[in-house]
Every structure is written in structure tokens, then in C-alpha cells.
Amino acid sequence: MVLAAAGITCVTSYAQVKEDFKPSSLNQPGKEYPMVNSEGRVRAQIPAPDATYVKLDIGGVKYDLVKDENGVWTGESAPQDEGFHYYQLNIDGASVPDPGSLYFYGASRWGSGVEIPAKDEDFYALKNVPHGQIREIYYYSKTNNAMRHCFVYTPAGYDQDLSKRYPVLYLQHGGGENEYGWPSQGKTAQIMDNLISEGKAKPFIIVMDNGAWTMSGPRQRPAEGETWPPKNWAEGFMNTLINDIIPMVDENFRTLADGKHRAMAGLSMGGMQTKAITLAKTDVFSYVGIFSGGSISVEESQNAAGFRENNKLVFVSFGSRELENRRPGFGGDPKEETKKLKESGINAYFYVSQDTAHEWQSWRRGLYQFAQLLFNN
Amino acid sequence: MVLAAAGITCVTSYAQVKEDFKPSSLNQPGKEYPMVNSEGRVRAQIPAPDATYVKLDIGGVKYDLVKDENGVWTGESAPQDEGFHYYQLNIDGASVPDPGSLYFYGASRWGSGVEIPAKDEDFYALKNVPHGQIREIYYYSKTNNAMRHCFVYTPAGYDQDLSKRYPVLYLQHGGGENEYGWPSQGKTAQIMDNLISEGKAKPFIIVMDNGAWTMSGPRQRPAEGETWPPKNWAEGFMNTLINDIIPMVDENFRTLADGKHRAMAGLSMGGMQTKAITLAKTDVFSYVGIFSGGSISVEESQNAAGFRENNKLVFVSFGSRELENRRPGFGGDPKEETKKLKESGINAYFYVSQDTAHEWQSWRRGLYQFAQLLFNN
To answer: Which chain A residues have a beta carbon less than 8 Å from that of B29?
Structure first.
């Protein structure tokens, strides 16, 4: 970025800034800052009369704010991608949330978020359509010997026709995130309410739990017959998912409680968990969604007993900037791998979110596409 | 407070601090600070290597933190009352949330909260008992011509016996707070789950909406036949409550949809709204709870047509420190007024929360007492 250099570069950039800033849609009630302009720049402002420096820390870059005669600091970032971004302020070396924004969990902390308006923001806008509910659930987990916490989306109409049963999607967040990610910055309820009201997706239940068992999650105990300790985070969360979460959901919600009506998806770490768990438990899930978390090869699909027989959908998505700057470790070319998987006879889809990176706008779009393919076959 | 003076007073206080600090139960996952000791002191800590000063701002007093050789600032407050407290940090003049705590809405902002363990904390502890759900609801309001947002608590068993219908409590927050207050720092679900599982309260539905219509709430339009503009905030919220919220709840939940099975309660501003609305709409509510928000006189009960005939309960509560330092404007002596109301034939109760002030521990206890009296007669 040009702004990584100091001084004069900043001034040059300043002169080019388009002065059409508006408050971010994720600001606290009545708060003007942070603001966002049509270039996607974020402008922060905070009174700090005795500070030596204040910086806006967003997208891995720190931008200097400038103090006015009243002790109020103001400054803006380079243009950001459309959609949601985590950020923070730095005041004389202290990294703190911006008191102007609402707060979101990511980067292993509750902190500030800002929303750059997107060309396609209509698909996750809050509209006057029939609304589902996000329900907050506490339940006891044998695997963890602890109370756990999740969110469950029930579609509009769930409380009206009490004879109807629904398929279920288990939807996981990424590393350093938690179960609040999808219902909050993920806009899950808005995406689903809009899709269902337009007849573009079947109504289904979505369970959003905490998969971060090795990081901030509680310690786990082995279930009877399980290997212990688990080989990795995917297997660790798998015990909880299979032995606690799914039975709790099937007991408390009107589900279609079989593998044919069960999907799992996740973003980044949650996508890797989805891959590992759906390959290991081929009788439990038949729909698979991996957002920015790898892909499934023909060989992997063949080595997982029952996978090819039971699977009804493998959906793989990435942000276009991720594919341009692919990080090592994902292995292979996910587009090519998914193409071959489709040629081998699996109902596979590959979706690219244009002009977005490893960030929530890619995953909102991933859910929007994936949801339309779910429980149709 | 002794600590309102500076310098040497602080040092004296320091020497007396009991070194049994533990992380607050409201800290972010994995965060050690803020900590709380058995005296109820709050100790904050934040790295701010280039700061000139850092203060802990709690209970209307700012306490100086002290910097160590690594640029980490640490310091503690005077003892606080048991229960929940809003607070913030001040770094070189910037008032910001503490990155160590979870965030709560109060004082017209999302900001830090800390929990002082209470002798009676068991009544709002999260336990392995049958759990209700907190449901997040978006709905269209004609009165506001806007989408609105509320939370609805449904008791354990709501989704099991689908023939059962429930009474409803409308439960309001205070000034500078919003609909997140009761489900979050108010511990509503934990209080109700525990009470119901012990057979101490009847199961009922609780609706927690945003009553702050003149402050952060959306602008309102008159409903047909309503006076406009409303005379005050109570009447303003009344239009929304009567014309939008109650019909929405009765349509979407299995309620007992009449005045005999409907309660309203609130804290502070929400208590004043409760008083004004239940005196004005005597056919809509028959149970009344006013927490730290005034009381109802015999004369007021007589002047409200239908109130005395329909009312089944008037519950009035305060923190003991509020009664000791009663603020002007509440008018009269609430204990004496409630005693006279009872003598006049109304089923009236007066409850005092010991050693607490105008704060959430008083209101958690108020709900705990009030809930046991609801829908019993």
C-alpha cells in the first residue's frame, strides 16, 4: 500500500480523498464515526486531547490520525474491500475498540467492526419480509462436562405450522471467531429471510455453535469409544458435534433427523472442520459447504467410506483475491480439484466471490449461493 | 469517596488492598483483566507504553493506573457494590472500552462491564437445569414505519407441549439502555430458568423491547385516534407497545392474550413507563412491577378508570442505597405509598434490595422477587 510510507505520502493521499463520507451502518446508535466514503475508505475520529499519537488499525495497516485544536483526532484508511472489516484504534500504544462502533468477535477478541457498502448489499439487507428467529440456546455437553452456548435460526413460519419438520445446516465460524460470527456480521438471518421470502431457498434450520474447542472453547473429555486425545481440532469438535450438539438439536427442534436432511458448512477453519468431519461421518451429513477452507479431491472422496454414495452436494467457494494470492497450505488448486470432483460424478459447485479476500463479504456470498442449492435433491 | 482526592490518598488506599483478585466473570475469553477482589475492588490493566496517564472510570470516579517498566498500566478502584457495573478506561483523555471485558449497553453506549461476585449470585447462575430460549425478533412497526428489534424469552418446555399457552410479561430497561439490558446484564434467562426449575415461578413468556423512543429509538407516527405528538416518552412508547408489540407477540407466540394474563414491569425510566402505561391501559395489564422507578399512590390508583377493578399485583422495589439517598423527583415515600396502597385493598408489595443502589443487582433481585408473585392469582 502507498500509505505504508509516511509523511508526504499521507498528504498526497489526503488530497485525493473523496469527501462523501457517511456513518458506517454498524455504528452505535447516534454515533457519527467511523464514516465510510464511496471509495471504501474508513474515517475514524476520537477525542484524545492529551495523546501523542492515535492510529486507525485496519486490514493489517496502521494509519495516522491528525489532531485538531480541540484535541479531536481524525484520519482515514486506504480503500477497503466491500463488506465487513474488523478494526481497532491505537492510542499511545494501547490497542482499544473504537467507542463509535458496535462490537464483533474476531481475531480472538470482541472489537470494532465497520461496513463498506457493497454493490450487492440488498441480499443481506433487513427488509419487511416474513422473519425467522435467532434463538440463543444453553445446553449441557457430556463431551465437555460443561454448559455450552449456541444460536439456532428457525425460519419464518416455524411456529405456525407445528406439524412441519425441517432439514438442518450446521454452520461454523473461522479461527479466532466464535458462534456470534454468523448471526452477527455474517447476516445469516437476513440472508435466509430474504432468500426464503423470494422462493429462492427452501426453509431450513441453521445451528451456529462454537468450534474453537482448542482455543477459547472448553476442554473436552473423550466419549465412549473415541480416540483420545483427538488427533486435531477437527476431530476435537467432531466429538461435541456428533455426541452433544446434533442430539440436542434433534430433541429440541422439529428436524428431519437423518443424514439425508443434514448439511455442514463453515468458513476458513470451520471449512476445514467441515471437510474433515463430513469425510469421517458420511452417514451423518450429505451436503457439504467449504468457504475459504480448501476443497475435496476425487481421491479424498474415494477414501472416505460411504462418502460418494451418500453425498448430495459439495460446494466450494473462495474470494477472488484469495485465489490470486493463494496461501500455502491449502494444497492443490481448489477450482481444478472441484471440477474433477464434479467430473467424477459428485454434485460439486465452485463459486468465486469477486473482488473480496479472506473476509466476511466472501462468506456472506458463499452462504447466499450455498443456501439455494441445499436440500433440493 | 476518599479516592476523589489525589496522590497520597491513593497510596494509602493501595496498602490496604486485599490481594485475592480473580478475573471478572464478564471478561472476554482468555482475558485476565479486569480482576475483582473480595472487597469488591476492580483492578484494570492495559499495555499503553506511550501514554501519559491511564484512568479507570467506574461509579462516577476516575482512578489513576500506574505504569510499570514494560509500559503496562495497572490500578484499582475503591470497593464497589455486589453485582454488575458499567465502566470505561481513559487513555490520555480518550474514553474507551477496556479491551479485556465483554460489552454491554448502558449510559447510552456499548461499553465495558464488570461483575462483583454477590453473596446471592446463585439465583442468576447458569446451571444444568432445563433452559428456556432467548429469541431475537425483527418485526415491522406501523407506529414507527420501521423495522424494530426485540428479544423474547420462552420458558423450557415451550417447544415440547404445543397445546400449552402462556401469560406474558413486558419487561423494560432504563434510560440510556436498550433491549439488550435484561437478556444480557439482567440475566433474565438464568433467573427464570432457575426459578421455574425449582417450582418457584410459573412459566411465562417475557418480551424485552426498546422503550427509548425519544433517545436512540426511531421516530414515531401517530396511530389512528392517538394524540400527537405524545405528551411524554411513556405515551410515545405506549403507542408502539399497544399497537405493534403486543399484537405481534400474540400473533407469533402461544400467549394467553388477555389483560388477566399480561404483566408489565421496568427499571428506572422503564418503571416510570410501566406506571404511566398500566394506569392508562387498565384493560391491557393486570400485573405491575416498578423497579427503582417510583410507586403508585392510592389517589393515582383511584383516578385511573378500571385500575383497581382489574389490577392483581403492584410490586415496587428499590435498592437500599437509593432509599437512603433518595433522589428528588420520584415524589413521596415509595414504601409508605405502597403500604397505603395495600391497605386500600390492592395486592401491593414493597421490596428492598440490601446494600445496592440504582444498579443492575437491585433489578436482578427485583425480577427474582416479582417473578415469583406473577400469574398466581
So the answer is: 108, 178, 216
